[in-house]
Amino acid sequence: MRLKRILVLGASMVALSLVITSCGSTGGPSSSAKATIRVASFNFSESIILAHIYGDALKNKGYTITYRDKLGNREIVEPSLENGLIDLYAGYAATDLTFIDKRQGAASEAGTDAAANVQKINTRLASKGVKALDPSPAVDQNAFAITKAEADQYHLTKLSDITPAIASQWTLGGPPECPQRPFCQPGLEQTYGLKFKAFKSLDTGGPLTFAALKQGSINIGLVFSSDGGITANNFVVLDDDKHLQQADNVVPLIRTDVLNSEITTILNSIDAKLNTPDLTAMNKSADVDKQDPIDIAATWVKDHGF
Amino acid sequence: MLATGVVGAVEDPWIRWSWISGHADVIIAALLQHIQLTLIAVVVGLLIAVPLGLLAWRSRVFRGPIFSVTGILYTIPSLALFSLLLPFTGLTIWTAEIGLVGYTLLILIRNIVVGLNAVPDEVREAARGMGFRPLAELARVDLPLAFPGILAGIRIATVTTIGLVTVTALIGEGGLGSLIYDGLLRDFKTPLVVGTVLCVALAVLSDLGLALLQRVVTPWARSRAVP
Question: Which of A288, A294, A295 to mutate to test the interface with B (most CBs of B within 10 A)?
Fold first, then answer.
């Protein structure tokens, strides 16, 4: 008799989980012949905004869109695209090229010409069924920020103003992958001759980096040049006068099995209309004013007639 | 430097009620996904743990390997596990579930074995004396008497899983963890607070619910004083 109770209990738990599973699943079968496109984003607001700008514009043209928001860093997102787990994400010409080069065991070819970077991405990814479309004029580059107090104290406006003596007193803050990335710690060492006292593993230009910089637990931190919080927090971005950072223009990377001429036209015309001030303003809305990245994207899509 | 203050930025309050009312659908969807991920993990974990638990209880040969393998599974850092599984299982709910189920196994199997070991030998002998065959003895004597111990394991596994589900936000699942993750990424306290509070509430309610269930299905235990 007891066993019967246990069995009933077990069966009802299974049944309940099945009910919830069926409630939780999203998206029905696509009614039209147009493809379903799985759009992914990195784990920061700008990426979510860009993914939803691409996705919403395509949705308005009758495509079925499923979002994989905040999927992770490039180490998760880019291989997912190559393996066909997702179809589209908003990449960055130089960072993605460098990442792909490294993944394929080649030397980094990224340069300061966005179109050339995109062309090289396409050479590398043609066999993987992935295509990069036109780069946008909108740029979001890695940049290094310090506090205004430090900038004033040492009279710093550009990265080459930092002397090795200052660097040897300073702690650098950045994402965990910074000590390996040529754009980050190794680049600062080789291009600017800066050896920092220590490195602190934080996030990719996110709230941890901002808080650490504000509290003085780091002296210089990796940020995104289009981050709306830089001026809001009274930080100063040092000019990259020796061109450590490559042309990191926004560029959609998409799987060729879902790509057609209509999608190419839509995404390329979005790219043409995106620009860095817009990007910076949208980032501020999301990160400083705490508006929803998804709503911000919807507004941009509506305002630009997509 | 700390006193420099923030220029132009609005101070982020702990709770923005307008965000909550505007995102009720998102919050409810996250809560439902959290319950779904937890239920699947515990139910599937139980389906695997019961036969393995019986095997570990009955056979000394298997007990060591079963305990050590599930013990090793339990020690894998969750942060790494989900990302490591991703290339093999893809962006499906199962990437999350394989990890979550793996973490329930040690708790469930140990409690099943402990529960069964706690069944007094005299009771078992009496059952045999009454002519129970082994399977009937297991189903009608051993398992029911071990049930309080097994349910204690289910309680721990459920509460642990509710906490662990939040980590799967890193691979795009996460339930309430996706709210917490959003709050962390944007330095936005409201989703962080909402996700955390609901997660704790869910854990407490589940634990109370299972405790109640334990009282209902083991009425004989009620009259006995618990040491």
Answer: A288
